[in-house]
User: What shape does this take?
Amino acid sequence: MIRLEHVSFEYESGCPVLDDLSFEIQEGEAVGLVGANGAGKSTLLRAMLGLLPCAGITVDDLPVVRENLSRIRKKLGYVLQNSDNQMFMPTVFEDIIFGPVNYGLSRQEAAQKAGEVMEQLGIQHLKDRYNHKISGGEKRMAAIGAVLSMDPEALLLDEPCSALDPCNRRRVIDLLNSLPVTKLVASHDLDMILDTCSRVILLSEGKVKADGPAYEILGSRKLMEDNHLELPLGWQSRGRTGNC
Assistant: This one.
């Protein structure tokens, strides 16, 4: 569904953030994107959406160029790392229905969809709350709901469980596992990656250092330490067989 061919990107500093990346993500795959701070994870997600100018990326055979962006962004749901940059309507409900209404649903249809999503996430009680008066974790759940309400064909998630308490973290993990859509999950929460992704792409200094089964990559102490990461906290209790 998503293909990268020799993708590179650098900011004005002249230092490459993405350096000749090539890989494919097939429809229905759940892929974890891991790497230390500055590895290029967030930059890569933004490039896939056309928020940064990168040649060599296609989504469903559509090149990520200006004339295709509206079609591509209907296919890709993007959960930003910072929810404050995503939630811009006054209330949680208005934020969640914003996307469906702008994609052509009536307000009644959008409200029904919003209700279903809020129930899935257990955030019905936030419906009429003002975004500036809810906690970071509550805002995180609402931001995920706003993306899910648009029924994307693929989800790009940047630290989806950040700021969440253990109960809501588990709720998000279970929900991701239940969704039959393509998922690319960028996170430092390697236990969450093991729980949700069967494949992992490891970035370091803008390059793909490893790409393969999640339990093999995340279970390699040498590979993790060589790329400034640590083994998942729950790895010892899982044993060498993984749990993906």
